[in-house]
Amino acid sequence: MICFQQKVIKNLLVLKRFALFLAVPYSLALLWASLMSLKDVPEVDIDHGDKIFHFLAYAILCLLWYFVFLFKLEQTSKRAVLNAILLAVVFGIIIEVLQGTLTVHRAFDVYDAIANSLGALLTGTVLWIRRNLQVKN
After folding, report:
1. Confidence (pLDDT) at 133
2. Among 74, 52, 92, which residue's Cα sits nearest to residue 66?
3. How far separated are the first and last CA of the chain, in Å rounded?
4. Cβ proximity of 65 and 111 under 8 Å
5. Which domain holds residue 74?
6. Residue at 111 is within a domain
7. Which of 30, 48, 79, 114 could form an SS bridge with 75, CB 3.0 to 4.6 Å?
8. Is residue 61 a contact partner of residue 132, using CB atoms and an 8 Å limit?
């Protein structure tokens, strides 16, 4: 049990040091992937695979920015959760709008925006519940 706790603490220290260096490149990669042409990308034969990708991508985005707000900007856990959700949802909506206005090979899809938002909201909900369940010393 102690070994597991030490690994968790070590991983949190890594996140604390590198949160911004993980969140910014991830966000830029997500932006790039969202605006690039998909003609050369192989089809994934999974029902609603596109929506699952959107959901997971924005769940991760929300988590990474939560760590930035919590560790780098030293916000309270409550504020960090709310800001991470807001950032991920707004980022997802902006990207969907950009797909419809800046590209000829992509289109605005309200269901993608919903999947993005649900991924961020689920992550935020889990973080919120975790925050409320923490035992204070």
Report:
1. 76
2. 74
3. 19
4. no
5. 19-133
6. yes
7. 79
8. no
